[in-house]
UniProtKB/TrEMBL annotation:
Residues 100-170 form the Tyrosine specific protein phosphatases domain. Residues 195-225 are annotated as: Disordered. PROSITE patterns: TYR_PHOSPHATASE_2. SUPFAM superfamilies: (Phosphotyrosine protein) phosphatases II. It comes from Coemansia biformis. Signal peptide: none annotated. InterPro entries: Prot-tyrosine_phosphatase-like, PTP, Tyr_Pase_cat, Tyr_Pase_dom. Residues 199-210 have a biased composition (Low complexity). This is Tyrosine specific protein phosphatases domain-containing protein.
Amino acid sequence: MAKLVSVSSYNTAGVGGRKPLGKASPLANSFSLIEYDKDHRFLIMDCPTNSTIPLYLKEFARLNVTDVVRVCEPTYLKERVESRNVHVHPPPSVLKQWRELVITRVSTPRSESESSAEPSTIAVHCVAGLGRAPVLVAVALIEKGMDPLDAIEHVRLKRRGAFNNRQITYLAENYKRASGFKGAAKIGSAIRSSPLNGASSAQPSPVSSSGTQSDKAAAPGAGHVSSGIHKSFFKKMFGSH
């Protein structure tokens, strides 16, 4: 398994499904491009710093990144990113804000000249890019119609080590689509050929902020997870921002 670090060996394009960089870069292990279709592209990464942000900006330009969603404490001046016409978003307080951003970017009409150009990308980062950021990308894939376990493994094929057991349990058992999409977009049985680090649906549901009741047990009947549960989940996963 490739070690995921911010500054590591050079010329490691393709390791663990990572997006090959334009040139040899000390950030070769930092980026994972997750593609669902030509309109749904996400770049999972670890957190930039003021010293490394110029290298990130080069990749943002190459991959046509329009937005950066930060799900950790700030580690760089957002003005340096926004000066390149890239919007920097603070951590979403509820999943609804993340879903709305994805819908807004995907539904933006593209001109005929833009349709043949590099599609836009939403970048997401937490501290190491292994937990909070992959969760948001998996949510976007599930909302598109992908089966939750397929979404988890689709992300993991590109970013090894993503998700802990609590996050897997939440996505696989507790998260309910808000899009109303009824189908399940399968991406191939080979995706599920290996276990998810021993995780299974038999795992106990994550404990809520009260420490006594699971999110699943607290979820209302059949359909939607309440905003209170989403806030509880985000507080546990993201902390206070």
